[in-house]
């Protein structure tokens, strides 16, 4: 019976691909709506809801394929795997978007953030504005986006996987 056990990796790959594609569709929708520079909490909440939904779906499907059983460790592997695969696919699209589709994206983002900062802090001196913009430039490059995105993805997916895994887990009876 052990040889028929489904592999967590195949579920992570399949549902990670789904998460990545849904993330791309959401990003394209934001772009078409002219909201690609938005950073509101609503967009973050929608992204987290999508992630929770796909991770939960992947765990349900694994449990169904595994005769109704799911261990917490399997849930963690599946959830974090889904998030990492989804992140890789989404970042690949993001790099294509930044370097091919809209090459001025990073410049425009910095300008939008600078204008938001000035609007919130109208008493800032030009020197303070320039220093803040330089700091933003350091943290907005592709390498930093990749690093912060990966860390955030692992952290959030670990929490989601732990909670969902605790809810969905069902250990096989010991014989």
Secondary-structure element sequence?
HHHHHH
Cα Rg: 20 Å
Specify the helix fraction band. over 70%
Low confidence ranges: none
**How large a portion of the residues is in β-strands, by DSSP E?**
under 5%
| Total helical elements | 6
Task: State mean pLDDT (0 to 100 scale).
Answer: 89
Q: Characterize the largest beta sheet: strand count, sense, and whether it forms a barrel.
A: none
Structural class: mainly alpha
Q: What is the terminal separation in angstroms?
A: 13 Å
Tally the beta strands. 0
Broad shape: elongated
Keywords: Membrane, Transmembrane, Transmembrane helix
Transmembrane segments: 12-34, 40-60, 80-101, 145-168
Protein name: DUF4199 domain-containing protein
Can you put this structure into words, describing what you see?
This protein is mainly α. The protein has a domain at 2-103 and 150-168. 78% of the residues lie in helices and 0% in strands. It has six helices and no strands. The longest helix has 30 residues, at 72-101. The two termini are 13 Å apart. The model has no long low-confidence stretch (mean pLDDT 89).
Short description:
With 175 residues, the protein is an all-alpha fold. It is built from six helices and no strands.
Question: Which SSEs are present, and which pair or pack?
Answer:
Blueprint: H1 8-32, H2 41-65, H3 72-101, H4 105-120, H5 126-139, H6 142-168
